[in-house]
Amino acid sequence: MTSPLRTLLVILALQLLPGCEDTPPKSSFDAGTPDAGPFVWDGTYTELEEHGDWVDRGPFAPCGFDSRDASSSACEELSRFDVSNCDPAALAMLPQEGIYLANTRDERRLADGGTLISTGPVGFQLRSDGGTSTLFDEPLRFRDTQDGRFSLIGTNTRTSLTMTLVGCQRPAPDVITGCFASCRRGKLSQQGTFEAHRVASWAGEPESSGGLTLLSERQAAQGQPVDVYVTLGHAYVVSLPYQGREGGLTVFDVRDPRNPILTASISLPGDSFWNGVWAWGNALYVASSVRGVHVYDLSNPALPVFVRSLPTGTYGAHTVLVDGGRLYAMVPNTGTYVYDVSQPLAPVLRTLITIPGDFDSGGPHDAFVYENRLYISNAFGGYGVMDVTNLDDVRYLGLYPRPDLGFAHHSAVGTFAGRTLAFEGGEFHSSHLRVLDVTDPARIVKLGEFRMRPVTSIHNLILHGTRLYVAWYHEGLRVLDVSNPTRPTQVAHYNTFRESDPYRGDSIFEGVYGVRVPGDGHVYVVDSSRGLLVFNEL
After folding, report:
1. pLDDT-based confidence at residue 1 (cuts at 50, 70, 90)
2. CA 338 to chain centre
3. Rg, the chain, Cα only
């Protein structure tokens, strides 16, 4: 860059009926929305500039860290922190418990006179009940939060990073700001300021709004629940390994949504990182990071029977979807495998789709199919569009790049006032909803956005008519009216995150992971701790 100010975002944490290939059947319930019509929006908009996920508001607190001596213990020396302009009286009122997510901000001068600003997420949990307080989901090495002091030291053993957080101010009851320093392998790596939010509370927001009512709740029998698919009167919940519990598949009979009944719990030895799930006809497809795609027979929906695995190489499969008689499996660092599922229990591989940057960016994380286009959330490589009308001649149509190296995670696409729009969500801190005009994939334009707190992250979303249901991790389930897509408006919400829930940690990946709206009058949600939650559809 030639500008004297360089700003770089650095993320520190890294049913239906089967059909044939030639005449694809109608898409399933969450594979696209027909033209919603010009009910509110006439199709005109002002193009919005893309600034990335994180918006720099300057230093978070009036404190500092003396970094002149970068010795091996520098970041653990509390005397190096200048807190002379801080507010110990406000910090003294801080509750001695809570789960917080924080954004850090590091600012440093470059040799050419410019400024490098980097940011990243960190979480911590304070316990007052005798439980273990944590940083990076690992036990704190030091804590002093009494009488107006606030100091935490923790080490991420996976990355050999030690961090010290020193509080300075309390601008709101659920917000702490201060300074931090981090060392990696005995050397000072970063120092700056932070802003931490107690994620289970937000300015007195109620548990729910807009008539969204929790009808039932059931714990998953396997690991940490992350995705759900509903078909044949049953909900299929897949889970990751977590805190000593193996991941796998939990099946619930939801023909009475107010009283789900557990019917099966399934896992495979040495293979329990199951992240995505989809059904088609009498087949269930599960994305496994070990073996690729598992195929289960749903002839008895309550008791799926394993049929086969579809190998996808070293990285397994991360997510799956079915549209138009095709099964798409997204494989990190590789590409998108496409299968003909005219015979649902016997998928036939047709092709492997890659787009520019697949291997450098982390590869496809998730995807969406609409009107013969494949919309690929290509991790750090942006949001790409492919023409998949003819699988023997797949064509690259365009890409929406991100100036901040942000993470493209998930999307849903539909038609509004004659224009094709993508509702795109990122992942990691400050990720939010973008509304993109993808009518011409060669020039994708941003026309709207919706943000929540800067410390939280979106995960998945479902477009159902003019309602967008968003699984927003710590923010719970958020329902947006997108009839005017230039101004998405929240019409309902349900906060699922409670600090008292079992297995809650301080990671940014906590809370609502998945959501489905199958058209049976209900909304099905999976929460990382609470399991399957069933709500009324608005």
Report:
1. very low
2. 24
3. 24
Model pLDDT for residues 237-250, shown as the tens digit of each residue: 999 998 888 999 99
Same domain, 269 and 407: yes
pLDDT confidence tier of residue 359, bands split at 50, 70 and 90: low
Contact between residue 355 and residue 396 where contact means Cβ atoms under 8 Å apart: yes
Residue-wise pLDDT tens digits, 410-464: 999 999 999 999 999 999 988 999 999 999 999 999 999 999 999 999 999 999 9
The whole-angstrom separation of Cα 380 and Cα 154 is: 28
Contact 222, 245 (CB under 8 A): yes
Measure the CA angle with vertex 450, ends 446 and 456; round to 5°. Answer: 120
Residue 156 included in any domain: yes
Which CATH number covers residue 174? Answer: 2.40.128
Global pTM? 0.91
- Structural domain for 160, as ranges: 66-198
Residue with tokens 């005798």: 130
- The answer to whether 280 touches 260, Cβ cutoff 8 Å, is no
Q: Check whether residue 258 and residue 343 sit in a common domain.
A: yes
Distance CA 488, CA 215 (A): 26
